[in-house]
Amino acid sequence: MASAAAAGAPPGPAVSKSRKSVTGTRRTVAALFLLPALVLLGALVVYPIGYSIVRSFYNASGDGFAGVDNYKALFTDDGIRTALKNNVIWVVFAPTVSTALGLMFAVLTERVRWGTAFKLVVFMPMAISMLAAGIIFRLVYDQDPAKGVANAVWVGVHDTFAPSSAFPKAHPGRESPLRPDQGGFVTRAPVHAGRPVALPLVGVAPDQFPGDTKKAVAARPEPGKVTGTTWQDFTRGKGVGRLGAPDPSEPGYAGMRIEAMKDGTVVATTKAAADGTFTLPAEADGALLRLPAANFKEPYNGVDWLGPSLVTPAIIGSYVWMWAGFAMVLIAAGLAGVPRELLEAARVDGANEWQVFRRITVPLLAPVLAVVMVTLMINVLKVFDLVYIIAPGSSQDDANVLALELYRKGFAESQPGIASAIAVFLLLLVIPVMLFNIRRLRREVRR
């Protein structure tokens, strides 16, 4: 009966095992379309990786097997160890600071009218190549405040609270009544009231005098007071001018501080007028006059941003300047997808803005923040351009990173075996971060 029923049933549609399409089998079509990409992938990715792994086991000439000696050098060579230490600093701070700034910019500019314009300005550095950014910040960090913006600002702020002297190069000339004393100068003999004192100095360039400086004049005696003149005792032209006395063309030391000292104690102080003249009270009678060291303090020249101690933080700052905009744009896109009902509900329940941000906004943005952090970590591990361009030769060893050390070993020092080992080591550092990112993306797809 069953066989008869089966025999009487209408035949169903035949299932094609080959599942052919109009153009042929699906696997063949897929292979044809993937073939160019696979060839490029093999030529540009697989082959270089394989060759680097093989080359890392050979010596510098490439004709002798070195075993793991090149890998041992990664942990014994001082330059590579410095590079590894700096890479750790880069991975810890650069992505963290860039992501934090991007989060702050994205959240704070969400409700302001000019938020879009601000985001555009912050994102603009992404349009600049690493090479151009390195050149820009090499100038920004220049030691000379007349060239470097960073030191120009720093010196401006410093001089607002602690102005430098206008006479850093001033010193006594020939037959001077002054002698050196603790960075300044003091008279060789006590001074007395009613007898004008001459305090001549030399060594200040004409363009370095304060703007209110006037031509020096000889001080007049005053009863019961010590008077005098401090000036630039130098007149252009051979044999011109009188030594030890103000001449018509010689400028006074405007603002020069003068102290009267008795037994090591300052009993009176004053400042020279625009023409270099000064007056001290009767307490200065019989005292030694001192021009303190503050009068001759060298001008503040700012911070050595590219010196051995600050070069790595300075270069990280330039990286943050470029990539904070990238982080901001991604986080702002994620923030646009956050349900506003949750934020409003939290505010209705009495949460303040900080609590809303910390307990609602940041947890909802966690996937986006993870994307930004992972992307920047991978990028930071390969950083080369900024370090190579910004760090001067004198401190490049202190700013060294693995990618730069790879270049130096491979091209400057002709050690391709060690360079290949560094490349393989960098690959091994990147793989865990990439695997973490792939697993996170798969979890997101399942949701």
State mean pLDDT (0 to 100 scale). Answer: 88
Q: How much strand content do the residues show?
A: 5-15%
- CATH superfamily membership of the largest domain, which one? MetI-like
* Domain tally: 2
Shape assignment = elongated
Question: What's the helical proportion of residues?
Answer: 40-55%
**Strand numbers in spatial order across the main sheet:** 3-4-10-7-8
Helix count?
Answer: 14
Biggest beta-sheet profile: 5 strands, antiparallel
Helix and strand pattern? HEEHHHHHHEEEEEEEEHHHHHHH
User: Low-confidence parts, pLDDT < 50 over ≥5 residues?
Assistant: 1-7
CATH architecture grouping of the largest domain? Orthogonal Bundle
Strands, count: 10
Explain this structure to me?
The radius of gyration is 37 Å and the shape is elongated. The protein has a 5-stranded antiparallel β-sheet with strand order 3-4-10-7-8, with no helix packed on it. The chain folds into 2 domains: 69-153 and 305-446, MetI-like (MetI-like fold), CATH 1.10.3720.10; 178-296, no CATH class. It has 447 residues and is an alpha+beta fold. The protein is built from 14 helices and 10 strands. A hairpin with a 2-residue loop joins strand 1 and strand 2 (24-25).
Key traits:
447 residues; MetI-like fold; five-stranded antiparallel β-sheet; three-stranded mixed β-sheet; 10% strand; disordered N terminus
Q: TL;DR of this structure?
A:
With 447 residues, the protein is of the alpha+beta class.
Can you lay out the helices and strands and say which pair or pack?
Layout: H1 2-8, E1 20-21, E2 24-25, H2 26-55, H3 69-76, H4 78-108, H5 115-123, H6 130-140, H7 149-161, E3 178-181, E4 184-187, E5 197-201, E6 226-232, E7 257-262, E8 265-271, E9 277-280, E10 288-291, H8 311-336, H9 340-348, H10 353-364, H11 366-381, H12 385-390, H13 402-412, H14 416-446
Parallel strand pairs: 5-6
Antiparallel strand pairs: 1-2, 3-4, 4-10, 6-9, 7-8, 7-10
Helix pairs in contact: 2-14, 3-14, 4-8, 4-11, 4-13, 5-8, 8-11, 9-10, 11-14, 13-14
